[in-house]
Amino acid sequence: MAFDIRFWGVRGTIACPSTSHAKYGGNTSCIQVTVGDRIIIFDAGTGIRDLGNELQKRDVRDAHLLMSHTHWDHINGFPFFVPGYDPSWSLHIMAGHLNDANGSIRDVLNAQMLGPMFPVPLETMQAKIRYSDFKAGDQFKIHSDINVRTAPLRHPNGATGYRIEHNDKSVCYITDTEHVPGNPDQKILELIEGSDLVIYDSTYTKEEFTTKIGWGHSTWNEGLALCQAANVKKFAIFHHEPDHDDDFMDSVEMEAQDMWEHSFVAREGMIISLD
Predict the structure, then answer these.
(1) CA dist 14 → 11, 45, 53, 239, 250 (Å)
(2) Domain spanning 3-273: which CATH class is it, in words?
């Protein structure tokens, strides 16, 4: 059975379409995981628009959307997700970082579509949408044969890391999170142990990180170290800083691969197969 990962948006903070970002892409976070004929989506950044259009062409009618958190760069593509307006669609949206004080995942998605910020309210979406809030650290199943493990991440307002498992294969999505230098995050290490692919928040270089402490992001250096410590097979550098253009990301990939050949920089359109 196919177990594929496709990157639809790999940027953090804000979309940055330009010729200097053409190779790696300018859309914000969105990843498609395909297990057989089942679709799981990580985050609803601007990349989800193109994903939605592709799913409509393929006549897909069901998906799960797992949210890492609800900062703008991870949700502002949601109002442009065409399947949400299709009454023949079923969509299950899940989040693990919210609590009573912050409201539910439905509350947050609804708020960004209220006037005067947006002209089309959430109620306009005619798909059969189910909203579920859980606590980061919980474990659950999708379609009875896909196991999902989660962990809390270090990020302002909270965030959730995910591990999707099927038939002894797994992919982990770890963004947005801030590491503590010299103190590897044990929850992340436990979550990613032995995984086939880890997609990790690598917004900053090690040098940039020193001036960004408290902003909630990490470095590719930390991601690489975590993956090596946890016996991970492949490491995807993800959530690229908007000012890091193609030349910059080329140099990051070269340096990372010099340190560990199983590292690579995520690009829009890239497909990784785990089967």
Answers:
(1) 7, 9, 21, 10, 20
(2) alpha beta
